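Look over this one:
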Amino acid sequence: MTVNKLLQKLFGKKSDDFSKVPVVSEELVRSRKEEWEYSEWLSTGKYRDYIDNLQQNLQLRKEGLQPSMDVYLHQSPSANGFFFCNRGDFGSKCMGYMFEYFKDKMLDANYYLQNKSREYEEEPDRVKTTEMYVLKPSQRGRKEGETLKHYGNVTLEYVLIDDKPSYLKVMSNTYNDRSHIEILPFEEFLDHLLKY
């Protein structure tokens, strides 16, 4: 019996009412082995090929041309970002490493990790796992009256379907604030994220 069917029996609601409820929600914690494997991946320099490929395909998408990989841009006054799907462009663990790499790039940009979570959702024919990092700009080292420059709040989302990488989403959410904060252009955000 699935979790949704059990909930339906207990509460007398349709299973569709529970389809978006995470079965498990937990803090995202990496094991030492996972951290070591990520460090090993970085030390090989292989990430540069993936970053270059992503950069080229984002540029094609911006120019209105068809990229060779499934990559999509989102731009609006309040949120900017991109996501890309795993269609054979990335190895089985590479998308997860890219997820960690983008987090580290934001930490290097004077951001702090506000939230890190993993959720499992049971859908009718699959299990969806969503890993998420929420990063916010740090005020550390800022002098009184000094303008803080940053990219807005950054959300990274890595989704696996039945434990297989599906897509990676990167979003920068801006907001209005009168306390000496300047939101840098999305292009600068991309330059920082995709520069090695």
